[in-house]
Amino acid sequence: MTTSACGCEPAEPVTGSEEHASWWRNSAVLIPVFSGLTLVLGLVLEWFVRGAWAGTAAAWLFWIALLLGASQFVPGAVRGLFARGRLSIGLLMTISAAGAVALGFIEEAAALAFLYSIVEALEDRAMDKARSGLRALLALIPSSATVLGTHGVARTVGVELLERGDVIRLAAGERLATDGIVRVGQSSLDVSAITGESIPVEVGPGDEVLAGSINTSGVLEVEAIAPGTDNSLTTVVGLVEQAQAEKGERARIADRLARPLVPGVLVLAALVALIGSIVGDPGLWIERALVVLVAASPCALAISVPITVVSAIGAASKFGVIIKSGAAFERMGYLRHVAVDKTGTLTRNQPTVTQVLTSGEASEGEVLGWAAALEAHSTHPLAAAITATATEVPAAREVTETAGEGITGLIDGVRTAVGSPRWLNPGPFSERIHAMESSGVTVVIVHRDDHPVGAIGVRDELRPEAREVMASLALQGMGVSMLTGDNTRTADALATEAGIADVRSQLRPQDKAHAVAELRDRGCGPVAMIGDGVNDAPALASADIGIAMGATGSDAAIESADVAFTGDDLRLIPRAIDHARHGRRVISQNIILSLAIIIVLLPLAITGILGLAAVVLVHEVAEVFVILNGLRAARTRQLARPPSGHTVEHEEVRHAHRPAPLPL
Q: Is domain 323-348+464-579 given the CATH code 3.65.10.20 in the classification?
C-alpha cells in the first residue's frame, strides 16, 4: 500500500480485478476538470461580458469551481488533522483557500482549489500508470483451468481452487494457471511475457513450467506444484507491491525535508501576518501570509521521489527485473562492483558432453553407449549429460558404483568401467585429457577389460551472452569478480573465457560473504552479489545489493536478495544497473527542482512581488513538471552491444583458495 505524497488518503493496493479506468470515467479526474471549466467560464464572464448579471454569474461559477476543487483535498486534510494529528500539505492548501475566501478573494481561492486538485489527480493517475506493469502480470494468470480428475475426467475449476498435486490439461494456445511440472506431452512454451525470452522453450516430461506460460502446440498434462493463488507470478507481484510500499533513502530524505516544512510554513505565515500587522496594514500582510502558505508548500518535494521510484520499479518489472524496495532501487544506482557466482549464473547449470576421445578400437557412438549403459544406474551429476547424449545404449548387468571413483559392470559379457582419470588409467589419452581439464572440462575414462578405449569430456558451458555482458559492465565502469565453490582449474578456465580477471575459487558459503565484504572494504564501492543457489544466500544478504537469478529459483536466494530476475539472461544485469542510474539522475533533478521552487517563491511572496494567483499558478505548474519528470524514470532502453573484440580490463587476478570446498 502506498500513501499519497501530499498527505491524502492511502491508495488501494493493486488487485487482479482492478481496472485501469479511462480518465473520462474517473471522478477523481472529472471533478477537477469541471472545476477548471467553471473557473475558466467565470473568468470569461468577468473579463469580457458587461452587466450586473455577468458579475453575479461569474461569482457563482467561482464558488462552484472552489467547492468542486476543494472537495478533492479538504476532507482528507481535515480527517488527517483531527484523527491522526497530521499537518499535511493539503491542510496548508485548505487554510490558504479559507483565508482567501475570508478576505474576499473568491477567484484566487477557486484557482488554488482547481490547480491543487488537478495536481492531486495527476499524481494519482501517475501512480496508477506506474502500477500498470502489475496489472499486466496479473492478467497473465487465467481465471480458470482444466483439471484432470480420477479416471481422466476433465473439469473446469477456478484458479483460486487449484492446489498442489492437481493435474492440469493445457491445450495449444492456453495459458498455464500456476507453476507445475510436465508429466505427459511434448511442446514449446511462449514465456516472453514472464522472462523476456523471445524464443519459445521446448519442454517435456520432468520439465518445470511457470504460471502464465502459453502452450504453443500439442497438449500437455502438468502437475501443479503451487496453489493457483500463490505461484511465481503472484510472488513477483507481491515483491513489486512491497517495493512500492517501501521508500528508498532519497525518499526518506525528501520526507525528512518535507515533514518539518509543514509546521514550519504555518509558523512562518503566522509570523508574517503578526509582524506585518504590527508595522503595516493588517489586511495586506495577512494576504501575504496566505501567499507564503502556498509558496512554501513542499508538495512537489514530497511527491518528487515516490513518483520516480514507483515508476521505475514498475517499468523494471516489465523487462524481468523485480526490485523489492525503493531503497534497493536507489542503491543499485550507486553500484560500482559486481560479484558473480559461477554455476547456474555464468553457466547454464546443465552439464553437457563437449568432446569424445576414442582409440581405433571403438567409435564415438560405441564409447558413449557403453558409458551411458553404466551411468544410467548412477545419480552422479555427469551421468545425466552422458545418458542424454548417447543414441544407442546396450544393456548392462552386475553394475557396481564406487562413490568418488566410478562405476563398473558387464556389457555384452565384457567387464566395462567408467570413472575418473585418477581412478582409471588414461593410457594414450593422458596428454589430451590434461589439455581438456586445463580448459575446465571434467573427463571420464571408459575401460573395456581394463584397457582404455575412450574418454568423454563434460562441462557446464558458459552462457552464450556471458562475455558480452562482462564487456558491457566494464563499459559502465563496473568491476567484476567471480566467486565460486568450484575447483580452481575449472573456475580459471571459465573466467578467462568470460573475460573476468578477479577469480575467487573453492569458496564455502561463508567465504563468499567474506569475499563480498572484503571487496567493499578495499574501496571497490557499493558491491552487488549475483547468484541463484542456497549457497549464495549469505553473500546475497551481505552485499549492498543481492540479485537472485531466476525469480523461481532457490527460496533462500530469493529471500536473501534485494532484486530478482524472472529469467536467466545475464544481459538483464547491465540493463538493470543502467535503469537504476537513470532513475537516480531523475530523483536528483526532482529534489533540486522542488527545493528551488520553495527558495525562489518565498521571498517573492513575502515582499509582495507575486500575488496569490501568480504563486498558485507557478507552484502547481512546477509540481506538474516534477510529476512528468518523475514518470521519465519509467523509460527503458536496450543497451548497445559493446564493440567487437572489446575486452574487460580489471585489476590483477586474485585467487582465494579455501580448504573443504563446497562446489555449487
A: no
Is-contact 546 311, C-beta < 8 A?
Answer: no
Q: Which of 207, 176, 196 is nearest to 567 (CA)?
A: 196
Q: Which class is domain 142-230?
A: mainly beta
> Please, which pLDDT band fits residue 211 given cuts at 50, 70 and 90?
confident
Following CA atoms 141, 145, 150, 154 in sequence, which dihedral angle do they give, to the nearest 10 degrees? -160
Widest pairwise Cα distance in the chain: 117
Tens-place pLDDT, residues 553-583: 445 556 667 888 877 888 999 999 999 999 9
Residue type, 147: V
Question: With contact defined as beta carbons under 8 Å apart, do 311 and 128 qualify?
Answer: no
What would the 3-class secondary structure string for 174-224 be? CECCCCEEEEECCEEEECHHHHCCCCCEEECCCCEECCCCEECCCCEEEEE
Say if CB 141 and CB 237 are below 8 A apart.
no
Per-domain residue ranges of the chain: 23-133+239-316+583-634, 142-230, 323-348+464-579, 352-459
The Cα angle at residue 505 between residues 504 and 508, in degrees rounded to 5: 105
Mean per-residue pLDDT over the chain, rounded: 79
Report d(CA 481, CA 579) in Å as an integer: 22
* pTM recorded for the entire structure: 0.65
Domain at 352-459: CATH code: 3.40.1110.10
Tell me, yes or no, if 255 is annotated catalytic. no
C-alpha cell at 396: 548392462
pLDDT, tens digit, 9 for 90 and up, residues 50-87: 878 888 999 999 999 999 989 988 888 888 888 877 77
| CA distance linking residue 175 with residue 555, whole number of Å | 24
Distance CA 50, CA 183 (A): 83
- Whether 142-230 shares its CATH topology with 352-459 is answered no
Spot the catalytic one: 190, 341, 460, 511.
341
* Residue type present at position 368: L
Could you give the CA distance from residue 106 to residue 65 in angstroms, rounded to a whole number? 10
